[in-house]
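ARCHIVE CARD
CATEGORY: sequence design from structure
SOURCE FIELD: tokenized fold
FIELD CONTENT:
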């Protein structure tokens, strides 16, 4: 590819925007990139660090937003472009930029997974992302851990999923420009309006146009449910539906059956981590409906000895002891309700304070905390360090590797 061609850099993301680098089915060798473009015919230039660029053509999906809903903050009639990269080298840096006519994006980069130990960052409920809380928190974590490339989020990226301005506030900055993302779907990704009564969409339209996740999930919620492998670690992401979803909705049973099939076929993993937005052991007063569908998932988690479930939704921080069927068991699953990585916080509820199932809870409302997780995994154990917006350690847990069939 001719590297001497001069392009105008689209500094303000007027032509190329909402660029995301998402994890592929195998984090060591696969990456999925997505962007939105005002014109047809854009393409990707990508290179392995130290080599020349090659041109990759995307699939282009014409999307007129008013087909899904109407909102003046959206740039209507754009092309959603996706590239799925495979056969990449592990532990290598790749650089890319998007070309649209005579314009190009800023240069982005990512690093593929390593054969050594895994390090990751996890967040929950950015939600009120039009302020600087999320920006400062993620930047602090990233600057303190420049070697961490994988960032997870358990959903509620924006307070209202229909607001493109909230997504652009995060993704058109440099916040995630050089990171690989595994972002789950929250109930606010289903929000179509804040007018009373609040309108919920049947699918998380904007989320599905923003992230190019692995398409290996449950058929009824492709892209918002998915899994990926990182060496001998398996990550599963679930979609818990909208804010008012009924516990009998097929989305729960469908995903439980899908997850059971995945875990029965995918054997030999040292750790299994699930990310889901709603907290199965969260504060009951925040979403009592969760306790009604929780057994559907817990049965599968227990069957396959899932190590960790990371969630949010309640905007309260709690961490259970290892549980099997809601009974403390050293071989059970730890449920981590991360609380909030933004500004929305609630006091710890009595259903958590008065229960013996929890190892730790923090009143993030009283302490005015926004939280994130630094995770480290080797073949023997997983360690989770929970830090606040001042980078103070507020909780720490180690989870030892289990024996599996």
């Amino acid at each position: 590819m001719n590297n001497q061609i001069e392009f105008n850099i689209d500094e303000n993301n007027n032509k190329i925007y909402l660029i995301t680098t998402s994890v592929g089915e195998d984090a060591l060798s696969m990456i999925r990139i997505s962007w939105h473009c005002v014109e047809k015919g854009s393409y990707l230039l990508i290179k392995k660090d130290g080599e020349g660029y090659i041109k990759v053509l995307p699939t282009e999906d014409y999307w007129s937003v008013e087909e899904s809903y109407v909102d003046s903050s959206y740039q209507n009639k754009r092309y959603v472009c996706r590239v799925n990269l495979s056969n990449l080298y592990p532990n290598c840096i790749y650089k890319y930029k998007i070309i649209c006519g005579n314009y190009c994006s800023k240069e982005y980069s990512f690093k593929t997974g390593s054969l050594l130990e895994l390090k990751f960052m996890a967040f929950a409920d950015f939600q009120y992302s039009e302020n600087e809380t999320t920006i400062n928190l993620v930047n602090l974590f990233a600057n303190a851990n420049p070697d961490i490339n994988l960032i997870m989020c358990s959903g509620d990226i924006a307070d209202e999923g229909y607001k493109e301005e909230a997504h652009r506030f995060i993704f058109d900055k440099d916040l995630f420009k050089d990171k690989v993302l595994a972002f789950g779907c929250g109930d606010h990704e289903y929000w179509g309006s804040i007018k009373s009564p609040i309108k919920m969409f049947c699918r998380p339209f904007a989320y599905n146009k923003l992230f190019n996740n692995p398409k290996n999930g449950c058929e009824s919620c492709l892209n918002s449910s998915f899994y990926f492998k990182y060496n001998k670690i398996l990550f599963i992401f679930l979609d818990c539906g909208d804010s008012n979803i009924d516990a009998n909705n097929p989305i729960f049973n469908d995903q439980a059956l899908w997850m059971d099939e995945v875990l029965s076929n995918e054997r030999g993993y040292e750790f299994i981590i699930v990310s889901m937005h709603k907290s199965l052991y969260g504060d009951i007063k925040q979403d009592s409906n969760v306790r009604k569908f929780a057994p559907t998932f817990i049965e599968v988690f227990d069957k396959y000895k899932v190590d960790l479930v990371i969630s949010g939704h309640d905007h309260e921080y709690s961490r259970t002891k290892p549980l099997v069927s809601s009974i403390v068991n050293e071989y059970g699953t730890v449920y981590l309700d991360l609380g909030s990585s933004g500004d929305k916080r609630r006091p710890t509820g009595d259903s958590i304070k008065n229960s013996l199932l929890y190892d730790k809870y923090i009143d993030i409302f009283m302490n005015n905390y926004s939280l994130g997780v630094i995770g480290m995994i080797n073949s023997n154990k997983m360690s989770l360090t929970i830090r606040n917006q001042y980078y103070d350690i507020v909780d720490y847990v180690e989870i030892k590797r289990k024996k599996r069939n």
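CARD ANNOTATION: Residues 9-111 form a domain with the Immunoglobulin-like fold (CATH 2.60.40.380). Helices lie at 133-144, 164-171, 205-210, 250-265, 290-303, 350-353, 364-367.
SHELF: design records, drawer C
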